[in-house]
Write a structure and sequence with these properties.
Elements: H1 2-16, E1 29-33, E2 54-60, E3 64-69, E4 74-79, E5 85-88, E6 96-103, E7 107-114, E8 117-126, E9 132-139, E10 146-153
Antiparallel strand pairs: 1-2, 1-10, 2-3, 3-4, 4-5, 5-6, 6-7, 7-8, 8-9, 9-10
């Protein structure tokens, strides 16, 4: 438990870094899942996560992004350049990578792969007022996407 906590603290420090030139990026910040607005799958239903799901998205050097999810201890560090970067965390499949690309001012796409095969595609969109982040997550071999709606929150 101590080692897991230490790893998360180190990951948070690395991910928090300095915000570089992307300080005005609408994705950056802390987000809390709004289960009432979300359409979750059975694997991620409202009772699956004991604590409220939150994510934090940070940036440094302008092009590098980090998405931390404390509820499953995952860390996605990536650039929006369509190149694969390793995903980290105790519940992350061995060999998983993530690549990203920007879609306009308010959208990004993340592709998750295991051993080169796409297993998940995420479409992340921020509302024009910057208060809501919507993730439309499509898993390989599933016909229905999962929609996760997050509200921006401040500590």
């Amino acid at each position: 438990m101590y080692l897991r906590t230490l790893v998360l603290i180190i990951a948070a420090v690395v991910c928090l870094g300095t915000n570089g030139t992307a300080a005005d990026d609408s994705f950056l910040g802390r987000w809390k899942l709004n289960p009432e607005k979300s359409q979750l799958s059975a694997a991620t239903d409202k009772t699956a996560t004991p604590a409220p799901m939150t994510i934090q998205i940070t940036s440094w050097h302008g092009d590098d992004y980090c998405m931390l999810n404390p509820s499953d201890e995952s860390e996605l560090t990536f650039r929006l350049d369509r190149k694969d970067y390793p995903a980290k965390g105790p519940q992350i499949a061995e060999g998983m990578t993530v690549s990203g690309e920007r879609r306009g001012d308010f959208g990004i796409t993340l592709i998750h792969k295991v051993k080169g095969r796409t297993v998940q595609t995420d479409q992340w969109d921020v509302s024009s007022d910057g208060k809501t982040l919507t993730g439309t997550i499509t898993y390989a071999r599933q016909t229905t996407a999962e929609v996760r709606v997050f509200d921006r929150f401040h500590l």
